[in-house]
Amino acid sequence: MFRCAGLVIVLTVASLTTTAEELENRHALGQPICRSLATAVDAASKDGQPVFLASYRPGPSESALPLPLRSSAFSYDNALAVIALVSCGALDQGRRIGEAFLHAIDHDRSFRDGRIRNAYRAGIVQSVSLLPGWWEPAIKGWAEDGYQNGTATGNVAWVALALLTLADTTDDARYLAATRTLMDWVKVHTGGTAGAGVTGGVDGFDPVQTRLAWKSTEHNLDVYAAALWYGRATGDQRFIGLMRSSRAFLDEAFLEQPGCFALGREPDGRMNGSVRLALDTQLWPVLAVPDGPPAWRRALACAETRMTVAGGFDFNEDRDGLWVEGTAQAALTYQVVGQRTRANELLNGLTAELAPSGWLYATREERLTTGLRIGPGSTSEDFFYFRRPHLGATAWAALAANRWNPFVSRRFR
């Protein structure tokens, strides 16, 4: 029994289709998280309609979310939720979010080029896929966020990974066709630039958006994994150049000394050094490139040395708190490399971060810095996480508990 938005909803174990062997190989944290994710979809889509889930809920000290977040369903979080729900055995709920993405690709309000926006308006989809926004009293008008309106390359690739997961699970050809559309967008709009790798995407408001010239290591990991998976699933080699370019970028981004992955390249082509690092960039190479060079495993030690805090990991090196999503990512990565005891330690610790709703908080502390900027218009490092129940953190914890690698749709023992 779980409490959601003031309602008591009963979800039986039988509604999540799992085998006894699968349950035996899961961490105990997975069961309540799987139920909370499935319940959230059912509550938002009572009649089975395509739906996007809001990414955040108010934190313990909040009566409501800030206006720019109240209706925001970030594509990255929802893509993760699709994969997590499949890993939970809740295929019906995962497909409802997947159907919302299929609709969004074909029903953008301004563009007909197959892009995915960074966020959509939470709730049941409409005839035109709505973007988040709010009534702003200061201007007495409707306001939107430039980042949420934009399209980050990595987010497109994550939606592709979610659709590939559904295609792998259902044999529904529509998911492969939509994946091809998304990856075509990446190829046309972010590939083919000087040097290896894809660029960051586009940012800003319709109809003229700013192209982002920087290149992210994280984005290139996402694109590599999606392009590789698509090629293997279909035999279609149209993205082999994109895959090879992203893979070459990853080789460039690995810093032999000190054995860490750089954030990426600046617009002028300079590779970020080892002064500013991010946790996910150290972990995802192990997950996304299983046949990567043995030296890449040193990045996990880099994270251990430079980003650990009590109970898990920070987003970056300032160690100002626990990043729940990243700690779940680390738990999954440790499982992949065979360190199951360490993985279970991290998952056991995350049980303390369960909110009453069954979702996990984004942080243990009230606010967590990342050292990053939200968009090109930012004049300071203004990307923060707060102690609010977070869909993305919850989905990553489900994946770790269920021992499911989202980059390859593979459960492992």
Task: Describe the structure using short key phrases.
413 residues; alpha+beta; Glycosyltransferase; 3-stranded antiparallel beta sheet; two-stranded antiparallel ribbon; globular
Sequence stretches where pLDDT stays below 50 over 5 or more residues: 1-15
What percent of the residues sit in helical stretches (DSSP H or I)? 40-55%
- Order the strands across the largest sheet as they lie in space: 9-10-11
CATH class: Mainly Alpha
How far is the N terminus from the C terminus? 29 Å
Coarse structural class:
alpha+beta
| Count of helical stretches | 14
Percentage of residues in strands:
5-15%
Q: How many domains, as an integer?
A: 1
Shape: globular
CATH topology name: Glycosyltransferase
The second-level CATH architecture is: Alpha/alpha barrel
**Radius of gyration, Cα only, in angstroms?**
20 Å
Mean pLDDT equals 92
Q: How many strands in all?
A: 23
Task: Outline the biggest β-sheet.
Answer: 3 strands, antiparallel
Brief account:
The protein is an alpha+beta fold. 43% of the residues lie in helices and 14% in strands. It has a three-stranded antiparallel beta sheet.
Describe this structure in words.
- This protein has 413 residues and is α+β, with helices and mostly antiparallel strands.
- The chain has one domain (2-411): Glycosyltransferase.
- The protein is 43% helix and 14% strand.
- It has 14 helices and 23 strands.
- The strands form eleven sheets. Strands 9-10-11 form a three-stranded antiparallel β-sheet. Strands 1-2 form a two-stranded antiparallel ribbon. Strands 3-6 form a two-stranded antiparallel ribbon.
- A hairpin with a 2-residue loop joins strand 1 (2-4) and strand 2 (7-9).
- Helix 2 crosses helix 14, helix 3 (75-88) packs parallel to helix 14 (391-402) and helix 4 (91-106) packs across helix 6 (153-170).
- The radius of gyration is 20 Å and the shape is globular.
- The two termini are 29 Å apart.
- The model is unreliable at 1-15 (pLDDT under 50).
